[in-house]
Amino acid sequence: MKEVTIQNRKIGTEYEPFVIAEMSGNHNQSLNRALEIVEAAAKAGADALKIQTYTADTMTLEIEKEDFVISDQTSPWKNKSLYYLYQEAYTPWEWHQSIFGRCRELGMIAFSSPFDETAVDFLESLEVPCYKIASFECTDIPLIRKVARTKKPMIISTGMCTAAEIDESVTAAKEEGCREIILLKCTSTYPATPENSHIKTIPHMHDLFQCPIGLSDHTLGSGVAVASVAMGASVIEKHFTLSRQDGGVDSQFSLEPAEFHLLVQETKKAWQAMGQVHYGPTKAEDQSKKYRRSIYVSENVKKGETLTHDNLRVIRPGFGMAPKYYQVCLGKIVNQDIEKGTPLTWDLI
């Protein structure tokens, strides 16, 4: 499985990185803002825009017990109940068609992460071209089987997953008929740090699962994403917002339009720079070879005189003999008059 095709866009290491703008809850419960995010993502160069399809009731229970409250004091959502968080962050289902339609008008692929079976049925009614499984649902085998039965490409984030858990998810998807799978290396902390990103895992995942591998990136900035392309990532997913100052559940670790545009440019450059194993001058370097050093006669020399350190030098440009012959040429007698600035060649000795 060397490549995956989503809506005529081929994805794999032989193609430019497929860059996904994740809207998540950065619409701040405004459809107008959501559509502005779509337009800004397209302008910034995103290949695709992703949203999330759930409601608070399909995600959790409306309970204030300790298990249902975020206790991690480093989390941007600390002390919030899960139900309240999902109420704040969810994208109303009645918005989906408008968001997807605007994406298509702007030439972007639009899809979503379903979080339960009802979401899959709803997204099927909208004819999405592919599905994304979020990291926290990577072990939800019933959900994965449901999505796989659509026979559409599936992108699976693997945050927190062991290799065995990833294998279980991939196996389940294949058993249900899914033939196009992309796995994303992901660190499920918000924000994530570069030292916890471990992107050396990307080529290992590629060898292990024989499918395109990408990065779902929650770090600040674009450095980790750029480096991941050098490690073989063919998909980059990054949260996107109009402005972090406007707030929003994911704004803290989201890129603004100018930053996202830079991410698109730099990941593309990283992919272009990978090239192939190559030694010797490239075609573009042919003209530069003349600026190498070579052996030149540095003073006027008469026929029969000897070449010495005083009349022979290794200098630029490179039209003379290679510098490695300098010691060989010292002490040799020239067979004709030679003018200063003449490149030394064997027929002059």
Concise description?
The protein has 349 residues and is an alpha/beta fold.
Description:
The protein is of the alpha/beta class and 349 residues long. The protein has two domains: 4-54 and 90-274, TIM Barrel (Alpha-Beta Barrel); 283-348, Antifreeze-like/N-acetylneuraminic acid synthase C-terminal domain (Type Iii Antifreeze Protein Isoform Hplc 12, Alpha-Beta Complex). It is 30% helix and 15% strand. The strands form three sheets. The chain has an eight-stranded parallel β-sheet with strand order 5-4-3-10-9-8-7-6. It has a two-stranded antiparallel sheet with strand order 1-2. Helix 1 (31-44) runs parallel beside helix 4 (96-105), helix 1 packs parallel to helix 10 and helix 6 (141-148) runs parallel beside helix 7 (163-175). It is elongated and about 100 Å long.
- Class by SSE composition: alpha/beta
> Which shape, going by the Cα principal axes?
elongated
Mean pLDDT: 96
Please tell me the CATH architecture of the largest domain by its name. Answer: Alpha-Beta Barrel
- Strands side by side in the biggest sheet: 5-4-3-10-9-8-7-6
How many helices? The count is 11
Strand residues, percent: 15-25%
Radius of gyration: 29 Å
> Which stretches of 5+ consecutive residues score pLDDT under 50?
none
Terminal CA distance reads 62 Å
Q: Name the CATH superfamily assignment of the largest domain.
A: Aldolase class I
Give a quick account of the main beta sheet: strands, pairing sense, barrel closure: 8 strands, parallel
Q: Indicate the percent of residues in helices.
A: 25-40%
Q: What series of H and E elements makes up the topology?
A: EEEHEHHHEHEHEHEHEHEHEEH
Number of structural domains: 2
Domain AFP-like: 294-349
GO molecular function: N-acylneuraminate-9-phosphate synthase activity
Protein name: N-acetylneuraminate synthase
InterPro entries: AFP_Neu5c_C_sf (IPR036732), Aldolase_TIM (IPR013785), PseI-like (IPR051690), PseI/NeuA/B-like_N (IPR013132), Pseudaminic_synth_PseI (IPR020030), SAF (IPR013974), SAF_AFP_Neu5Ac (IPR006190), SAF_PseI/NeuA/NeuB (IPR057736)
